[in-house]
Amino acid sequence: MKASLCILLFSMALFHVNAQWYRDFGRDVADAGRRVADAVGDAGRYVTQAAQGTWDMGRAYWDMREANFKNSDKYFHARGNYDAAHRGAGGKDMAEFISNTREYLQGGSSGRGVEDSEADQEANRWGREGGNPNRYRPSGLPEKY
Predict the structure, then answer these.
(1) What are the start and end residues of every segment in region (Disordered) (predicted)?
(2) Which one-letter DSSP state was computed for residue 110?
């Protein structure tokens, strides 16, 4: 009788330990699933923001071309970066990538030199960090822009 009582108590203790382990394991798996779902959602939002930021940068470029207004390029640099950065981290990163790539590829071939490229980059950073693009807006630029 004592042996069967000991086996019964031992079995109950073992069951309790295993049951607790399974509950903890189940919670851990559920938490991991939620973290994966959150990461996938975050990645999707980042890609969407990057695409929207690319659109903002392109729109600023085409507006600059359409305006064809003297001394307005810094304004459009700042505005494109500002708009893209306000989309979120993806837009801000894409604005930085596009700005840096443009300046690198231009490489002084614009005929304006290193100083102009550095001024462009300063306007890019200003807009990307949330500075008002109107700081660079030339007087007389149509309100449309």
Answers:
(1) 106-145
(2) T
CATH fold of 48-145? Topoisomerase I; Chain A, domain 4 (1.10.132)
Amino acid at 77: H
In this prediction the pTM is 0.77
CB 65 within 8 A of CB 104: no
Report the distance separating Cα 76 and Cα 74, nearest Å.
5
Q: What is the largest CA-CA distance in the chain?
A: 102
In this structure, the number of other CB atoms found within 10 A of the CB of residue 119 comes to 15
pLDDT digits (tens, 9 = 90+) for 10-68: 665 556 655 566 677 678 777 878 888 888 899 999 999 999 999 999 999 999 999 99
